[in-house]
Design goal:
Blueprint: H1 8-17, E1 23-24, E2 29-31, E3 36-38, H2 41-48, E4 53-54, H3 62-70, E5 76-78, H4 87-91, E6 97-101, E7 109-110, H5 113-119, E8 124-131, E9 141-148, H6 155-179, E10 194-195, H7 211-220, E11 227-231, E12 234-244, E13 262-264, E14 270-278, E15 284-285, H8 286-292
Parallel strand pairs: 1-4, 5-6, 7-10
Antiparallel strand pairs: 2-3, 6-8, 8-9, 11-12, 12-14, 13-14, 14-15
């Protein structure tokens, strides 16, 4: 049970090691200029592998719940599915529902654990395999694996690393869970945090924050939805940057300081912009970007 790219490596691993009786994903969504319905990455891969696919809009209908129970599955594997599982779904498989969650629980329960870990400045994150229950990511844990969050990591690169980590971790958890050799451990009551869904309003850069904080914010929402500032009528995305933590002139936050370009931020810090993108255009290194769209020193960015 999964929908986006993040779930695809786990699906492929399961197909190679177990009998997958059915794949559940969210329904196709309108996309592109023509708004034609586009199946999810999981649906496309599942169909290419000849697997039966179901994509109910929700799972509250008793008929959908009965159809799920009729599969007589040993276990359901849930990876970024995007739908809440009602109790009849959670209880239908003989061994329950196992979730591949992209954080080191109990830190970052919720919708955007990858983004929030970067934005908070965490040194590491990881994947936790847990048995699902009715609460939001509150179930007992079977296995976990960690990865460091590098200084240049963004949500895209960390997404790929955790997606690759989750697949073999899930197979190990399944083997131990099925044989009873891997216990489920309750989550600690301390250290719980919630990863709220990224709001569109968070995309606009706040130059009054310290540069390291702005840098983490940029990386946390790159590549999507992306961080931006405005210059005149242009909306410009920042895809990569480097904080400068001391020695900037006393100028208001948002002021372009030099031709790099470096932008004044809060607390006496500044941010050097490295990769920029105008709406509808390709990303460019700063030097190439400025040749077609100058940001002269003294310019105040929105």
């Amino acid at each position: 049970m999964g929908t986006p790219d993040f779930a695809v490596p786990t699906l492929r691993a399961l197909v190679g090691a177990h009998e997958v009786v059915c794949v559940y994903c969210q329904p196709p969504r309108p996309a592109g200029r023509g708004k034609a319905e586009r199946p999810s990455p999981v649906q496309r891969v599942a169909e290419s592998l000849g697997l039966p696919v179901r994509h109910p809009a929700r799972l509250k209908d008793p008929a959908d719940q009965a159809a799920f129970a009729d599969l007589q599955a040993d276990v359901a594997v849930v990876v970024a599915y995007g739908l809440i599982l009602p109790r009849p779904i959670l209880e239908a498989p003989r061994l329950g529902c196992l979730n591949v969650h992209a954080s080191l629980l109990p830190r970052w329960r919720g919708a955007a654990p990858i983004q929030r870990a970067i934005m908070a400045g965490d040194a590491e994150t990881g994947v936790t395999i847990m048995r699902m229950e009715a609460g939001l990511d509150t179930g007992p844990m079977l296995l976990a694996g960690s990865v460091p969050i590098g200084a240049d990591a963004n949500a895209g690169t960390l997404h790929d690393a955790l997606s690759a980590l989750g697949a073999p971790l899930l197979l190990r958890a399944l083997a131990g869970w099925a044989t009873g050799t891997l216990p489920a451990t309750p989550q600690p009551t301390e250290g719980v945090t919630y990863a709220a869904k990224i709001d569109k309003a968070e995309s606009r850069l706040d130059w009054s924050r310290a540069a390291p904080d702005v840098d983490r914010h940029v990386r946390g929402i790159t590549p999507a939805p992306g961080a931006f500032f405005t210059h005149g009528e242009d909306r410009i995305k920042v895809l990569a940057c480097t904080p400068v933590v001391e020695g900037r002139p006393e100028t208001p936050p948002g002021t372009v300081l030099d031709t790099a370009p470096t932008v004044a931020c809060g607390e006496g810090t500044a941010l050097r912009l490295r990769v920029l993108q105008r709406a509808g255009k390709a990303p460019l290194e700063a030097e190439a970007f400025l040749r077609g769209h100058p940001l002269p020193p003294g310019t105040v960015l929105g």
